[in-house]
Amino acid sequence: MKRYVLALLFICLSVGVNADKEVDSLQTAMIDSLLQQLQEMKMNEIVLQHALDKRGESERADSIAQANMRHRIDSLRNVTPGVPLVVEEDTLLYIHASIGGQSPEVRASNMKYTIEQLGKSLRLTTDSIFVFEGEHFSYIMCGNIHRCPLGQGQ
């Protein structure tokens, strides 16, 4: 009988040890999996931070180039007086450059006519007129219709 009790005790302890080994191996596997996920997340963070840094550098370079362009345009304005766009005795802006083969004088005349026609329109609301900043030019817009190209930096 003593042998049976010892055998039973041995079996219970060995099952408990095996169960502990299985729990330990499961915990180790979970820890390894979590460490791998953490490492992947850190790597993704590094990649995203690098992309964000590059984007910031690109935006800074773009803003510097744009500031240089505005400086060149402003220095040319000192040399070239430009043609005033006058509507109802009010000077709206000065036109300095030709666009599409139209001289500044012709552009000013066309813009004046377009603006006066918009002013006479009964369907015009003040919220529908805005300046659209395109890649190369700015445009006076009325709704979805582009009315007058302004040029760069005007």
Describe this structure in words.
This protein is 62% helix and 18% strand. It is elongated. The mean pLDDT is 77. It has 2 domains: 1-79; 83-151, no CATH class. It is built from 2 helices and 5 strands; from the N terminus they run αββαβββ. The chain has helices spanning 2-79, 104-120, and strands at residues 83-87, 90-95, 129-133, 138-142, 145-151. The relative contact order is 0.07. The strands form 2 sheets. The chain has a 3-stranded antiparallel sheet with strand order 3-4-5, covered by helices on one side. The protein has 154 residues and is an alpha+beta fold.
Q: What descriptors fit this protein?
A:
154 residues, alpha+beta, three-stranded antiparallel beta sheet, 2 helices, 5 strands
Shape: elongated
The helix-and-strand class reads: alpha+beta
Order of helices and strands: HEEHEEE
Largest sheet: 3 strands, antiparallel
Give me the number of helical elements: 2
Helix content: 55-70%
Stretches where pLDDT is under 50 for at least 5 consecutive residues are none
Order of strands across the widest beta sheet? 3-4-5
Give the secondary structure arrangement, pairings included.
Layout: H1 2-79, E1 83-87, E2 90-95, H2 104-120, E3 129-133, E4 138-142, E5 145-151
Antiparallel strand pairs: 1-2, 3-4, 4-5
